[in-house]
Amino acid sequence: MTSLQCTRWFLVMSLVMQVLLRGGGAAAADKVPAVIVFGDSTADTGNNNFIQTLARGNYPPYGQDYAGRVATGRFSNGRLPVDFVSEALGLPPAVPAYLDPGHSIHRLASGVSFASAGSGLDDITAQILSAVTLTQQIEHFKEYKARLRRAKGDATANHIISRSLYIFSIGASDFLANYLVFPLRRYRFTLPEYEAYLVGAAEVAVRAVHALGARRIRLAGLPQLGCLPLQRTINLARPGDCNEWHNMMARSFNHRLRALVWKLNQELPGAQVVYVDQYRLLAAMIAKPWEYGFENSVRGCCGTGYIETGVLCSLDNALSCDNADKYVFFDAVHPSERAYKIVANGILNATSHIVN
Fold it and tell me: The domain 32-350 belongs to what CATH superfamily?
């Protein structure tokens, strides 16, 4: 190699190293330090174990495929989407519950769930099953932020709060429980009015966490509510079929939520609010389960699979299926771990600009 070739090689390698170093520095600076979660049973990793409520999943068959076959309080046979998101971002494979006294603030610094099964965007929804309201979840977040400052110092706490990924997975109970089953809000709101009310509540919640320092925020839309096994079962007009009116409600609400996301991105300084199309993800699995490796998308694995959720799954434990991986749903309302992992991939794709 001539001296000229050596010089060129050195210059090229120097440029390559600068690019790699700059890229590595950017990745380190942009790394997500924690996943912070608000929501309902689709995101509750065990908070309801520590409050007085019937909405619990801390008994078999829940957790039958979780590490150690432990029923942690997650409404699934295994992990939830937020757990898979955390793992994919290089964080712990399970997001701890804030109300679990066994978790120190140092453990919670890399991820925390404030979610409570039975909660909703409407605080009255949470009162039906004595869940933690969304308003109280945000108060817990304020408390968490103060604890972080005391334990980690202002600089580290500010970094965690400002760079974390925030996930809101909530809203189904507002329609299924509050508006349809227990018509607490039907006496006050028409359906379009209630949708607008819920979107307003979502806006208040996002603005509240943004004011506390959150920037990367993901809002999950509603799934096909009418195609949940329980909704098929109680569809009196066409038993066994999806309730298309309930699906229409979900689509209408999701349309409003998308508009809210656009508005928030325009108005909140530094905000990166992303809508997660959960409806499309689950609809695809339900319509063509075989394309995703499932055999059944009509009923759940737990019990008969048609009506059981919560404590009813425990009562019918002996009837539960042997392999939940074959089912889109684990109980009559909640997806299986495999389906949740697909939802998690959707969340990650929606946040693909995040560098890890």
Answer: SGNH hydrolase (3.40.50.1110)
